[in-house]
């Protein structure tokens, strides 16, 4: 996909806050446990950051689909990344910086899904007594004709990097094809 406009992270550190699976040195960054290398909303080891950090493809940053400014992950409370599924189909993965993706973001993603014929997977965590539970619910939606894709991607869900080391995905729940 072609890059539409260059963007910079600025003071966003959403992908360093534990919502993606990242191992930094001996530290497993996970929900509720941000990366210890964050300093003043920046990465203190940026030039030598781990490969997992350097290779992370943030969809908002790539901006191939003209994501609006308000979707910057720290503002929209969601990290978007492309997930290769089956049969050369990619999905937009929407990973909340917290428990769930907001209705405003989901509405936007539904429009985008229709416009670009892309499936969307969004994730939901549960927090109890100040701790995130290891189960992660995954819900999928997409344009008509995607049901066969959803039925084949369960094992792919296991590989999505959004999960912390101790998190496990629950079954995928296609909730709509429109
Ligand atoms: S989530 Fe995206 S915009 Fe935010 S710090 Fe990470 S790469 Fe940059
Ligand atoms: S090492 Fe830097 S880029 Fe990687 S998670 Fe930590 S703060 Fe973010």
Essential attributes:
globular; 6 helices; binds iron/sulfur cluster; 178 residues; alpha/beta
How would you characterize this protein structure?
This protein is an alpha/beta fold and 178 residues long. The chain has a domain at 57-176. The protein contains six helices and nine strands. The strands form three sheets. Strands 5-6-7-8-9 form a five-stranded mixed sheet. A two-stranded antiparallel sheet has the order 1-2. The longest helix has 14 residues, at 103-116. The site of one iron/sulfur cluster has 12 residues, from strand 1. One iron/sulfur cluster binds at residues 16, 22, 24, 29, 35, 37-38, 43, 45, 49-50, 53.
Low-confidence stretches: 168-174
Number of helices: 6
Structural class: alpha/beta
What string, H for helix and E for strand, traces the elements in order?
A: EEEEHHHEEHEEHHE
Q: What is the tally of beta strands?
A: 9
Strand content: 25-35%
């Amino acid at each position: 996909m072609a890059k539409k406009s260059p963007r910079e992270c600025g003071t966003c550190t959403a992908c360093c806050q534990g919502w993606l699976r990242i191992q930094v040195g001996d530290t497993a960054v996970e929900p509720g446990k941000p990366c210890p290398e964050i300093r003043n909303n920046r990465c203190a080891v940026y030039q030598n950051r781990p490969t997992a950090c350097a290779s992370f493809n943030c969809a908002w940053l790539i901006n191939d689909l003209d994501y609006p400014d308000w979707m910057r992950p720290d503002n929209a409370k969601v990290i978007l990344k492309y997930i290769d599924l089956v049969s050369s189909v990619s999905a937009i993965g929407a990973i909340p910086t917290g428990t769930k993706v907001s209705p405003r973001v989901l509405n936007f993603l539904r429009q985008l899904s229709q416009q670009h014929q892309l499936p969307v997977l969004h994730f939901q965590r549960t927090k109890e007594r100040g701790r995130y539970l290891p189960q992660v619910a995954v819900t999928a939606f997409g344009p008509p004709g995607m049901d066969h894709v959803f039925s084949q991607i369960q094992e792919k869900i296991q590989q999505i990097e959004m999960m912390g080391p101790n998190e496990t995905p629950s079954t995928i729940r296609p909730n709509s094809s429109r």
